Amino acid sequence: MALSSSNFNWKIGPRNISKFSSSINSNNTISLSFSGSVSMGLNLASSSSTRFTKSNRFRNHGSPLKVVCIDYPRPEIDNTVNFIEAAYLSSTFRANPRPTKPLNVVIAGAGLAGLSTAKYLADAGHKPILLEARDVLGGKVAAWKDEDGDWYETGLHIFFGAYPNVQNLFGELGINDRLQWKEHSMIFAMPSKPGEFSRFDFPEVLPSPINGIWAILRNNEMLTWPEKIKFAIGLLPAILGGQAYVEAQDGLSVKEWMRKQGIPERVTDEVFIAMSKALNFINPDELSMQCILIALNRFLQEKHGSKMAFLDGNPPERLCMPIVDHIKSLGGEVHLNSRIKKIELNDDSTVKSFLLTNGKVIEADAYVCAAPVDILKLLLPENWKGVPYFQKLDKLVGVPVINVHIWFDRKLKNTYDHLLFSRSPLLSVYADMSLTCKEYYNPNQSMLELVFAPAEEWISRSDEDIIDATMSELAKLFPDEISADQSKAKILKYHVVKTPRSVYKTVPNCEPCRPIQRSPIEGFYLAGDYTKQKYLASMEGAVLSGKLCAQAIVQDSELLSTRGQKRIAQASIV
User: Fold this and answer.
1) Which alpha helices (H) appear in 136-184, and where do they start and end?
2) Quick one: which pathway (predicted)?
């Protein structure tokens, strides 16, 4: 759906027009909605030119006229095998017999992995103590509010239908309505035709994988028929071989696998460069083919697997806080500004305590590191570094990524209420958040959020250099509206968020190095998207890793309780 304050076009698509209704109320508000959908208010006020500044407040609410915008209904994902499996795992924590003496479990890191670990431990009747080094929740989904009250985020986060554990988490917290589902499409920019897009539309009436095959066959702008046929033949082993085949491809890069399967290089150029950058922020000559095949498998095997949703606001408040509230309601604790300085050990090399930079010492029955793998490696005690379990972590290294936010002085017309694949050499995906997200909605000015990747050569460059390069790329995506010199749309302000080490770089032969959540050190556990779980480096992977970590602790609860009692007894003897 393309929207602008000066050219307001509704692209209804597959929606039933008979369900459309409008009304005008006493305060000059026009309400447009579809039955069974969530509505959103739009202010139809004229844009005004504003001087470029990083801190200028620019929103114009001059007109009381409002239009209500809608999102697509939540897809029917609750009956999929993966969703039911995830729901069952969640239920095991709630059904777990209440412990006579709950375990105190200290967890370092309040990203999605740490929050998930704490949530499910609390569900099982134990007491999580969650420590976050920074003053903000979320880890890789963290966000901050600037002096104007606008939010800027660590990354552009998309919630897929094929994220069963994430979708269950939303349901368990009662916040399903916070996901804004978009039409079932994938939209790619056309570099050879600046300003134009090519779509893969998944028909709602067809089951999987037919809907995905239909979407590919119907698109004649990116791939020719001979290329589609060769691509389909090349994919047959993955379709027939299942998960075992997918995991066996970890040793090949995307480019190597394509050549091996006889798939034309143009398929990689047209589709998989964009897909590789979206999945792991690197190009297909570096990315393990296993990562692509896992995504394709999820998208093709589930009818709504590739359907996308945006969160309706900033992640710390709209997603992380409900988890924190749930944890606290069950007796758990969450502490910000609590950075781990050192993992202190007992004589037998088990964990004695977490020493914080503020001097506090935290002791518990079990310990979890839910920080990124690069931080874990810095915290590893010398006694542990020779253990093969930890030695393998050397291969896992976070990939740099940059998230760019630009507020413009006008509403851009050449965009959609959806995620867009830029197919730019410098940019990965982007979205006009003033359309896609309720909290960020603005009818008069656009705010583009863009993932700048690969970022290895840019992470040390100045914000100004990054913005200049971004604007040059945007001039190709918006040739009639944006120019690199700002002679057209002007920047009102921007934020650049650099993450030198984000998700682990999914290069070939990483899979054997990913650790299970239960470490060989008794009472010490790991959580994070880099740990062993089937969704790799993603929000779904982080949430699932937390559930698996909590599951391991619950399974070990008797051992951990006995260990704690022995420690207390020994201390009293001394």
Assistant:
1) 164-173
2) Carotenoid biosynthesis; lycopene biosynthesis
